[in-house]
Amino acid sequence: MENKYGNMILSEGLISAGKSTLTKELVNKIPNAISIEEQTINSDLLATFYADPKKYSFLFQMENLCSRYSQHIDGIKQAWTNKKITVY
């Protein structure tokens, strides 16, 4: 049976856990795979969070959650449009 939509592989983890490295390795090993680069964290917000983590932890986590959700939707669109394996 033919796959009409493509597939997705998502890597999740903490900051600097190796998600981007894993994504690059998978794309190199899987034929016809494409990757979506992870969006960078807002450096101003990151600095604010590090300055007062107790005060800004919720804001920082929500920003990351919303950003990751947006990337997930983009990944679904890529997989369905290209009918390839999308890795991010």
Give a structural overview.
The protein is mainly alpha-helical. It is built from three helices and three strands. It has a three-stranded parallel β-sheet, sandwiched between helices.
Fold blueprint:
Layout lengths: L6 E3 L9 H11 L3 E3 L7 H9 L1 H30 L2 E3 L1
Parallel strand pairs: 1-3, 2-3
Helix pairs in contact: 2-3
Which key terms come to mind for this protein?
88 residues, mainly alpha, elongated, 57% helix
Average of per-residue pLDDT values: 83
The number of helices is 3
Please list the strands of the largest sheet in the order they lie side by side: 1-3-2
Cα separation of the termini: 25 Å
Residue runs with pLDDT of under 50 for 5 or more positions? none
Number of strands: 3
Going by helix content, strand content and strand pairing, the class is mainly alpha
Largest sheet: 3 strands, parallel
Name the beta content range: 5-15%
Helix residue percentage: 55-70%
**Rg from Cα:** 16 Å
Shape: elongated
**Topology pattern, helix = H, strand = E:** EHEHHE
Put the structure in a nutshell:
The chain has 3 helices and 3 strands. It has helices spanning 19-29, 43-51, 53-82, and strands at 7-9, 33-35, 85-87.
